[in-house]
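Predict the holo structure. Ligand: NAP.
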Amino acid sequence: MIVRPRAAAREGSLPVASSGARTASTGGWPPRTAVVTGASSGIGREAALLLADQNCRSLLVGRNGAALDEVAAATQGHRIAVDLARPGGEVAVASRAAELLGEVDLLICSAGLGAAGPFDVMPPSTINDLIAVNVLAPMLLVRAMLPAMLERGQGRILLVGSVAGALGVRGEVAYSASKAAMVGFADALRSEVAGRGISVTLCLPGAVDTPFFHRRGAPYVRRWPRPIPAGLVAQRMLAGTGRGDAEVWVPRWLSAAARVHGAAPSLYRRLAGVFG
Ligand SMILES: NC(=O)c1ccc[n+]([C@@H]2O[C@H](COP(=O)([O-])OP(=O)(O)OC[C@H]3O[C@@H](n4cnc5c(N)ncnc54)[C@H](OP(=O)(O)O)[C@@H]3O)[C@@H](O)[C@H]2O)c1
């Protein structure tokens, strides 16, 4: 059974304040239509539930058909079971979206996976999988859906990155690299489509309480910071997207660590060596 979003997560619905620099504001908010990858679990699932509360029709993307069916029933959305790591997955999603939704106001790329452990013994196949799902899949899906948004002069793109992509986390070398690619992708894309009605928002969450850690085969073991609820991440990233924010850090204080990293890298490295 789907549990509807908790009241705390739904507080203030979509347009709620969060941190992040602004990009040009565009129309189409709240969105009438959305494509949500990773909608079968965790952050993507919570985002789909929040969007449904705003009467947004979504195409839910994932691999787990039963989990997608549950979210589709709870949101009255459409679903497509597709492995985004396989060639052509993005084409299937884009054409199904055009068929079922027509114009797409919002694209959320939340599908992703993790991997932990020393890089020197990480299987090459794991590195390939990370790059395929965390980097190539969102880039190819944006590539497939961007032309229609540009033609309309309206659209919002929300990429789910990670604080690991901005700061680099030991024991998560390949994952950090895959999410760092999203930082460059989001920055460059935002700059390229500026003034054409498209906003590009990158969400950088810290640890989030989802099946992510179980799936990667290594539990989250740090005592601090504690993992935050996926519903809170979904709420903040949607609010930031509504405003056209460039970045949404959840929790917000993580952006301070990134500022230290940028302004005083050697100090940051010393602190990271102490605190991990
Ligand atoms: N949890 C955290 O601590 C954390 C922190 C920072 C950033 N993030 C990022 O947040 C995003 C969402 O993660 P989450 O925490 O919500 O994890 P999650 O609960 O494990 O959900 C991952 C989602 O990605 C989908 N997915 C994975 N591989 C796929 C593939 N090959 N094709 C299609 N869909 C695929 C899964 O679909 P199926 O289950 O249907 O296969 C699932 O819906 C990821 O990009 C992750 O890197 C997570």
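The longest helix spans residues 124-152. The pocket of NAP is lined by residues 38, 40-44, 62-64, 67, 83-85, 110-113, 133, 160, 162, 205, 207-208, 210-212, 215, 230 (CB under 6 Å).
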